[in-house]
């Protein structure tokens, strides 16, 4: 290797949020990851909710008293006839 052009290479550990640690080689001294093959749903086969920074709690708190409403029919605007989505509607507008 050519001297003084390569970054320092560390024998370090990649530490996951689940607690698993992996011995790896890297140019970074410390590596912390949120997810690894030990805890990722793809490898564990379990559903897991990734709650980073309490987003799920925040959502539940925000919509605690809200119940989903029945779907309202979409009002067609008077302007622009292309909003009908290709369906033929009966002409209600009186011609000028
Ligand atoms: Zn993990």
TrEMBL record:
The keyword Zinc applies. It comes from candidate division WOR-1 bacterium RIFCSPHIGHO2_01_FULL_53_15. GO terms for cellular component: ribonucleoprotein complex; ribosome. Residues 64-78 have a biased composition (Basic residues). Binds 1 zinc ion per subunit. Its cofactor is Zn(2+). Zn(2+) binds at residues 16, 18, 36, 39. Residues 79-88 have a biased composition (Low complexity). Binds the 23S rRNA. InterPro entries: Ribosomal_bL28/bL31-like_sf, Ribosomal_bL31, Ribosomal_bL31_A, Ribosomal_bL31_sf. Part of the 50S ribosomal subunit. This is Large ribosomal subunit protein bL31. One of its GO terms (molecular function) is metal ion binding. One of its GO terms (biological process) is translation. Residues 64-96 are annotated as: Disordered. Belongs to the bacterial ribosomal protein bL31 family. Type A subfamily. The lineage of its organism: Bacteria, Bacillati, Saganbacteria. Keywords: Metal-binding, Ribonucleoprotein, Ribosomal protein, RNA-binding, rRNA-binding, Zinc. The keyword ATP-binding does not apply.
């Amino acid at each position: 290797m050519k001297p003084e052009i390569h970054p320092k290479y560390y024998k370090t550990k990649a530490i996951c949020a689940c607690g698993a640690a992996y011995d790896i080689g890297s140019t970074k001294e410390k590596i912390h990851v949120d997810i690894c093959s030990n805890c990722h749903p793809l490898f564990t086969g379990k559903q897991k909710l990734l709650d980073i920074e309490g987003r799920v709690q925040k959502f539940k708190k925000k919509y605690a008293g809200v119940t989903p409403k029945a779907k309202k029919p979409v009002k067609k605007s008077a302007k622009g006839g292309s909003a009908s989505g290709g369906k033929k509607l009966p002409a209600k507008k009186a011609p000028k």
